[in-house]
């Protein structure tokens, strides 16, 4: 099979890891990656693709030049003799679907979740939810996201749950010096390190984590908190840390390309999100034998079992999050047992081999039963409306 992925990559993050992990698992098939340039921020992903031996191309056309963009994608699909197009994200969904119809290629959307981060993003996500109805299929990364996709009006028969995956082998041989790198981030001596990672934006709830950290640290200063990532709320988060007197005990580690090497040396991972699909960082923490304290949102309860491999609490509640952190810390050596249970869970249920087999079953069904149809007048109208909106506020 010739499988083509379409995305708008701005850095090498979780979705990109998922795409490449699937491509490696589908070693008997040919995979090609197409990405919008995004101001040349796509280069990191292109480099990773080519390093792994996959063809990857940056598109020359972008919004608001919709027609030229659709034509370029369709031309690639024809030249590559694509059997199926997988679209990742609202821009890829909108333009990729139209291009796939033009090229006569079945098209799937991979739905990881919606953040509603800003008004502009909410507009794009509303258009995305509408477009999903006209895909040949939608892959949701968790049962919770599948429910959201069906609620958006996508027929249940078109919705398929295929969870994110992780390669546990990445964490078998941790580098010992990274524990020292962690400890040097803090003032004073820390014996327990609680970490978090993700885009520092409102939906990730890092302000809740900082408020919870202030409560945990009242009992002593031997615990350190580090938040890896970057984003629009970074300055506000730093100000909150300072106002609560937590400088030196709660630190912002910045965006780190070597996050994999830090993860095995955390004692606990915190995920305080308000919304999630299936968070890669939880799967990676478990693969690194690190237990998790998380909010019970999206697909998180599908992988984190309270009291077995971590702890769950409601979102947006610093007191509840602090209570769960304290409960985990009171386990002391028992934390390791939770981490082992987490690793057992991802090895059994969240491997890329299992994920690839599910995709192959879906492809077989799609190619055997789906004939591409031209877009309806309603969808063309929706696309035209989106184009006008995007000309005013380009992606």
H and E string:
EHEHEHEHEHEHEHEHEHEHEHEHEHHHH
At the fourth level of CATH, the homologous superfamily of the largest domain is Glycogen Phosphorylase B
Tell me how many strands there are.
13
The poorly predicted ranges are 370-395
Q: CATH first level of the largest domain: which class? A: Alpha Beta
Description:
This protein has 395 residues and is of the alpha/beta class. The protein has 2 domains: 2-165 and 352-392, Glycogen Phosphorylase B (Rossmann fold, 3-Layer(aba) Sandwich); 168-349, Glycogen Phosphorylase B (Rossmann fold), CATH 3.40.50.2000. Helix 8 links the parallel strand 8 (192-197) and strand 9. It starts with a strand and ends with a helix. Residues 370-395 have low confidence and may be disordered. It has helices at 14-25, 43-51, 66-79, 90-103, 119-132, 143-151, 177-183, 206-216, 234-243, 259-262, 280-287, 300-303, 318-330, 334-349, 352-369, 377-392; strands at residues 2-7, 30-35, 55-58, 84-88, 107-111, 137-140, 159-161, 192-197, 223-228, 250-254, 268-271, 292-295, 310-313.
Please give a handful of descriptors for the protein shown.
16 helices; six-stranded parallel beta sheet; Rossmann fold; alpha/beta; 45% helix
Which SSEs are present, and which pair or pack?
Layout: E1 2-7, H1 14-25, E2 30-35, H2 43-51, E3 55-58, H3 66-79, E4 84-88, H4 90-103, E5 107-111, H5 119-132, E6 137-140, H6 143-151, E7 159-161, H7 177-183, E8 192-197, H8 206-216, E9 223-228, H9 234-243, E10 250-254, H10 259-262, E11 268-271, H11 280-287, E12 292-295, H12 300-303, E13 310-313, H13 318-330, H14 334-349, H15 352-369, H16 377-392
Helix pairs in contact: 1-15, 3-4, 4-5, 5-16, 8-13, 11-14
């Amino acid at each position: 099979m010739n499988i083509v992925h379409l995305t708008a990559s701005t850095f090498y993050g979780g979705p990109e890891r998922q795409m490449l992990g699937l491509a490696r698992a589908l070693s008997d098939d040919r995979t090609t990656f197409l990405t919008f340039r995004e101001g040349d921020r796509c280069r990191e992903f292109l480099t990773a693709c080519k390093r792994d031996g996959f063809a990857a191309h940056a598109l020359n056309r972008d919004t608001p030049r919709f027609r030229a963009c659709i034509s370029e994608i369709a031309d690639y699909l024809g030249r590559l003799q694509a059997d199926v197009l997988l679209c990742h994200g609202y821009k890829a969904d909108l333009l990729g679907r139209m291009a796939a119809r033009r090229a006569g290629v079945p098209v799937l959307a991979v739905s990881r979740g919606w953040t509603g981060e800003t008004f502009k993003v909410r507009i794009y996500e509303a258009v995305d939810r509408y477009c999903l109805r006209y895909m040949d299929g939608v892959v949701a990364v968790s049962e919770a996201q599948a429910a959201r996709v069906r609620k958006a009006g996508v027929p249940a028969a078109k919705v398929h749950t295929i969870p994110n995956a992780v390669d546990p082998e990445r964490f078998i041989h941790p580098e010992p010096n990274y524990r020292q790198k962690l400890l040097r981030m803090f003032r004073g001596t820390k014996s327990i390190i609680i970490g978090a990672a993700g885009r520092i934006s409102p939906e990730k709830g890092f302000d809740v984590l900082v408020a919870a950290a202030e409560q945990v640290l009242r009992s002593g200063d031997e615990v350190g908190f580090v938040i890896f990532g970057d984003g629009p709320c970074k300055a506000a988060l730093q100000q909150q840390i300072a106002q609560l007197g937590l400088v030196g005990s709660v630190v912002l580690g910045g965006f780190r390309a070597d996050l994999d090497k830090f993860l095995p040396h955390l004692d606990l991972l915190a995920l305080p999100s308000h919304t999630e699909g299936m968070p890669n960082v939880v799967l990676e923490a478990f693969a690194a034998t690190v237990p998790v304290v998380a909010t019970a949102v999206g697909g998180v309860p599908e992988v984190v079992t309270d009291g077995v491999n971590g702890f769950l609490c409601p979102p947006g509640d610093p007191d509840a999050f602090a209570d769960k952190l304290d409960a985990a810390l009171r386990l002391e050596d028992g934390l390791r047992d939770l981490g082992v249970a987490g690793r057992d869970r991802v090895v059994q249920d969240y491997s890329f081999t299992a994920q690839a087999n599910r995709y192959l079953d879906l492809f077989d069904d799609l190619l055997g039963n789906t004939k591409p149809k031209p877009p309806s007048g309603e969808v063309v109208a929706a696309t035209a409306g989106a184009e006008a909106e995007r000309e005013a506020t380009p992606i």
